[in-house]
TrEMBL record:
Lineage: Eukaryota, Viridiplantae, Streptophyta, Embryophyta, Tracheophyta
Any one cellular-component term (Gene Ontology): nucleus
Residues annotated as domain HTH myb-type: 63-117
InterPro entries recorded: Homeodomain-like_sf, Myb_dom, Myb_TF_plants, SANT/Myb
UniProt-listed PANTHER family: F14D16.11-RELATED, TRANSCRIPTION FACTOR MYB35-LIKE
Protein name: Uncharacterized protein
DNA sequence: AATAATGGCAACCGCGAAAGC
DNA sequence: TGCTTTCGCGGTTGCCATTAT
């Protein structure tokens, strides 16, 4: 039954000391068999390596298009932003970084970025300031902020997609601006200035503010673009718009009006890595108080009276039925979340209540 | 100079999903 | 349809170089 085994990992695996096999592996891949048949390679080569090990070695070290130099501040910035958005999906994050592997990204995160954020007082898991986390724990039993933000975020997305055509148009406009900047325009200071400068910059008063939805759409676009094998076209620019940051960050002393210049100088707007209400539109709190009766009912409990909470499996199943690929992961995730909250409104309730 | 502690990196390993038989 | 292997992914481990004591 089933396929014959390609190898026995326990028997064939040799620890380390790859140097002697690297040349053989490269030759085998580039001249004889190409990429994708590692089991055959392991059998025929007789190098004593499991196909899986050889594949990993090739993917992480030997592939000719891999970058050998260290990560740039821009790359680090992007990794942090993507981690804040999608968590530790290293393979997806690595797809946005030409010449980097998921292992590289993961190692960078574990050894450097996590510590850097912690040193700045930002929790690397939640991307919130430690002070806010402590405050939230201090408010245990109440947790108004968490619930507010959760419901607000979801409602914002719902509104953008369903009931607020002007908002959707606005978001699409941002997305199109970003799209055209990334793909069509040559890299110029003007283009970066236009897109990355913050909303309060008087020189860009006509640019619509960049909202959360647009950010996620931009991420989606970058992911898709990378799947069309043009990561360089995207990466000549920052794939994610820089949101407004009114306070100076610990590592960047540049003013907000010179955001694009600071980026060009390898400086980073670290406060962008905070997942906070700053992402939400300024009038959001007002909108929260204007919940319609229907919306409040939806947020209040399941219509059938049950209090069932969907499992991770439900979520994954829902994702898979949409034919989710990495290219539309973020979009599918948002869609699923949206749907999940529609079907299981009890989720929007604070779990600590 | 010797040893311990630390950091960075590469490789290993287990799990779950997909695919083949 | 069920069993088995393959593959991709992410967490963990171990080695080596550097720094501190």
């Amino acid at each position: 039954m089933g396929r014959p085994p390609c190898c026995n990992d326990k028997v064939h695996n040799r620890k380390c000391n790859w140097t002697e096999d690297d040349a053989n592996t490269s030759t085998f891949v580039s001249i004889k068999h190409g990429i994708g048949n590692w089991a055959t390679m392991s059998k025929k080569s007789g190098y004593g390596r499991c196909g899986r090990s050889q594949k990993q070695r090739w993917t992480n070290r030997l592939k000719p298009d891999l970058k050998q130099d260290s990560f740039t501040p821009q790359e680090e910035e992007l990794i942090i932003k993507l981690h804040a958005t999608i968590g530790s999906r290293w393979s997806i994050i690595a797809q946005q970084l030409a010449g980097r592997t998921d292992n590289d990204v993961k190692n960078l995160w574990n050894t450097k970025l996590k510590k850097k954020l912690s040193a700045m007082g930002i929790d690397p898991v939640t991307h919130k300031p430690f002070s806010q986390i402590l405050t939230d724990y201090g408010n245990i039993g109440g947790f108004p902020k968490a619930r507010t933000r959760f419901v607000s975020l979801n409602r914002e997305l719902k509104g953008a997609f369903m009931s607020r055509p002007e908002q959707l148009q606005h978001s699409l406009q941002n997305f199109q601006n970003f799209n055209s900047l990334c793909v069509k325009l040559p890299k110029t200071e003007a283009s970066e200035e236009c897109f990355f400068s913050n909303n309060q910059d008087s020189s860009n008063i006509n640019q619509p503010p960049v909202d959360l939805l647009s950010e996620l759409q931009a991420i989606k676009f970058v992911t898709e673009a990378s799947n069309y094998n043009s990561p360089k076209a995207v990466f000549s620019h920052h794939p994610i718009p820089i949101t407004d940051c009114s306070t100076s960050s610990p590592l960047s002393s540049s003013s907000s009006s010179s955001a694009s210049h600071s980026l060009a100088e390898n400086q980073v707007n670290w406060c962008d890595y905070l997942l906070d209400d700053a992402f939400l539109p300024s009038n959001f709190k007002d909108q929260e108080d204007e919940l319609t009766v229907e919306e409040k009912l939806v947020c209040g409990g399941a219509q059938d009276g049950s209090n069932n909470v969907p499992s991770t499996k439900d979520f994954e199943t829902s994702l898979s039925t949409r034919g989710t690929s990495s290219s539309s992961f973020v979009e599918a995730m948002l869609e699923c979340e949206n749907e999940m909250f529609m079907n299981f409104p009890c989720l929007s309730e604070d779990p600590f209540y």
